[in-house]
Amino acid sequence: MSEPKPGWKKLNEGDVLPAGTAEKFETGDWRSERPTWHPERCIQCLFCWIYCPDSSILVKDQKMTGIDYQHCKGCGICARECPVKPEKAITMGPERE
Amino acid sequence: MAKIVAKTGNEAMAEAMRQINPDVVAAYPITPATEIVMIFAQFVADGLVDTQYVAVESEHSAMSACVGASAAGGRVMTGTSSQGLALMYEILPIAAALRLPIVMCDVNRAISGPINIHCDHSDTMAARDFGWIQIFSENSQEAYDSLLQAIRIAEDPRVHLPTMIMTDGFIISHCLDKIEILEDAEVKDFVGKERKSAVSLLDLNKPVSIGSLDLQDYYFEHRLQVAQAMKDSKKVILEIAEEFGKKFGRKYGLFEEYKTADAEYIIVALGSTCGTAKMVVDEMRDGGIKAGLLKIRVFRPFPAEEISQVLSKAKAVAVLDRSDSWSAQGGQVFTEIRSALFDLKAKPRLINYIYGLGGREITLDHLRSVYSALQKAESQPLVQYLGVRE
Amino acid sequence: MATLKDLSTRHEPLTGGHRLCPGCGASIVARQILLASKDPVVVVCATGCLEVSTTIFPFTAWTVPYLHNAFENAAATLSGVEACYQAFKKQGKIDKQIQFVAFGGDGGTYDIGLQSLSGAMERGHDLLYVCYNNEAYMNTGVQRSGATPKGANTSTEPVGKVKQGKVEWRKDLTEIMVAHGIPYVAQSVVGNWADLTRKAEKAFSIRGPKFINVLQPCRLGWGYKPEDTCVLGRLAVETCFWPIYEVENGVYKINSKPKEKKPVVEYLKTQDRFRHLFKPGNEHLLEEIQKGTDERWEKLLAKEGGSKA
Description:
The complex is a heterotrimer. Helix content of chain B is 39%, strand content 20%. Chain B has 13 helices and 16 strands. Chain B has helices at 9-20, 34-45, 59-71, 82-88, 92-97, 122-125, 140-155, 184-191, 219-248, 273-286, 304-311, 332-341, 364-374, and strands spanning 3-7, 24-27, 52-55, 76-80, 103-108, 133-136, 163-168, 177-181, 208-210, 255-258, 265-269, 291-296, 298-300, 316-321, 349-355, 383-386. The longest helix of chain B is centred in the middle third of the chain and has 30 residues, at 219-248. Chain C has helices at residues 4-8, 25-35, 49-54, 74-90, 106-111, 114-123, 173-179, 193-204, 219-223, 229-238, 265-268, 283-306; strands spanning 41-45, 55-56, 59-60, 66-68, 99-105, 128-133, 184-189, 210-215, 245-248, 251-254. Chains in contact: A-B, A-C, B-C. Chain B binds chain C through residues 23-24, 26, 50-52, 54-58, 60-62, 64-74, 76, 90-91, 94, 201-204, 207-215, 218, and chain C through 40, 42, 44, 51-52, 55-58, 60, 62-70, 72-73, 76-88, 90-91, 94, 96, 98, 115-116, 118-120, 122-123. Strand 9 (208-210) of chain B pairs parallel with strand 4 (66-68) of chain C.
């Protein structure tokens, strides 16, 4: 964020923000592990989507379509909750090799 | 046609609230303010107002609910005193920071301890640093008129600050007086049918987050906005008072100057004591003493420049504080006036009397003694306590 | 009841980019509760982890109208919002059904927020209060709350040379809410999305005050790997440590009766905050906790039996 912060005259009155501005804040750099989605194994149960604390499982037309790596913190809940056996449709691996 | 009626201060304020017909009133009882919300609750029960009345379980919740309702875009009012106001202290600065135009009646009552239900100004004086506009009333008429103006002041886009209107507990709140009440339609016309709020939680088309955490990089800027609004409110208060005066004939300002133009000895006071003081001023004048009274109406924002101009030519001034700040240097009003006069080249001898705590009566004799003392002001101690037993 | 596919088409209430810990259950609670509403929602949040981490100016993760006032007054604040809504409805300014939801942690609900919650419930406002219960004042460093279970290590009732963590049993706030006689009270958990969303849906269909107490595992305060948040929630239910049940108009229904009740130690051994209980000399504490858990479970079963029409 290299933009200069607004002065008091420019800020909205009264500690008000328009909805959803945190979308612009990157938390993907928190990860030390990253999830990988294996669509060929995915049964589209959407457990990963409903349990992701960071709204980082992308869905479209009632289907999971991928992972939002800008925000995913690598907590591993999606992989843990994935019910697919014997190999899960989401697996955790190191963020950096 | 306005009509003359007999009303106590509480009744007058409740009547003003009925005519304003706010969207939400969230209130809790406390002596001596209880009647305002009790009378209002009867209006609700009789269908005389459209207000949603929230009978909260504490004053902290009262102010919290007011914040919620005001953030939702509603016109919101409440009333309290003393410990009730104290319980609200956590939320009062939040209301100001969120720029919510909540209007509150505070019936001045001493802050505990010891517990005392009678009049002094300690409750609202302790709240002077929270960013609320504070307007004092001498009598029921002023309370009624100021409450109507408060809606316009608070909701003015240049202000957007919560506002409290004070009356002296029991002395004015429970004292039957003759006042002129406006027509319902005149009030509706003056305050406006509804609040026009730019931001509202209930505006689903423009969802907002209100009340975010500020870290070190934003808090200061947000606070400066409140400081500016408080500065700007002075002009707005005068504009609204002028409009009120033109429409309804009663003039208001930041303060009232009673025979101060050529006064050598001036008392400064707030609230009902001023009524008593005016009598003593007249008496002094009849006796050839150039006495005067400066009645402060608007305490926040503090009209420092304007007050200095009124007081600068006097020989001696006594500031009467109906509260102590425990600074060991005098009361709050005294300290602020002293600061206001500091840069003047020619300034009066300024002394302080702390009086009337816990409802201790202030009499004509007391005030006469103050004017006597002012005539020997150089020999007076800086701070004295008036009316206490040694 | 809405399926996950149905829910996935709804408006996402929280964006990514908030600063909650990886694996935090609080945002899972918020998402699941709010996704369950078909109507627009307005949220009030008490000071706490959820509030602080989702709204650091100028970033807010909330995509729905949101207000934060102070710590102990989410219920009172939301009461005011709801009152204004009722006023506007009467005046014809609004005709939509809006769902009003308060979120408070156990700190802001069981303890400092209890009065304001009780008042709001007694007054009958049309709102849902959700307690995301991680059993301590997590945001300020894991201090004990009235919700902290017996034996847990917290920073204000820590394990030391003469004390072994919290001495007192946790307060039963869910039962306190039942005693308020409100139309719907429920206990749920992070890790059972079907239970939580169904209960939220049920709550949203009722006009009046509703309360849901959600056990929310906290990886930092409880001490476990972030990926296990949902697993631990389910384990709390399987050991009857945290029963999931609902009380609708005074009628109790327990939603999960484990066929083989797992011993409580299965749950306790998974978390650092209970690690000291497994030291030699503390066996009696484990026994007490099992006994207490069993007693509460039996009492709950009896309440269910006694409340059938």
